[in-house]
Predict the 3D structure of the following.
Amino acid sequence: MIMIKKIFFALFAGLCLVSLSACTQKNKENFKNLSSDDFEQLIQDENVQVVDVRTVAEYSQGHLPNSLNINVLDETFSASVDEQLDIKRPVAVYCRSGKRSRNAAKILEKKGYTVYNLDKGFEDWKKNNKEIEL
């Protein structure tokens, strides 16, 4: 009976350790989050595709020069990406604050793109007096 209790205790302890490990393990992002300065430097490379993942209304109020607008909230986002982007070229994504672009970056990364995200978004870009187009 004591042996059975020891086995159950060992199994229980093992399960607890596995559960704890799973809970504390953060989802690994396979894309790079960049500051406004680093993002600005990156997009100087003409090979980099710059994608604004905000809505058309947000985009029309101001955006980064030479950026494409592909709304990540649109149900056709994945198909639009496949039609408009070259998977062989890096993609730099941004949104207003960085949340939607992180979601877009995850989708793009799963599709096989090399992705860079503007960490604090377009608001931080403007705050740092970076160039925009209307």
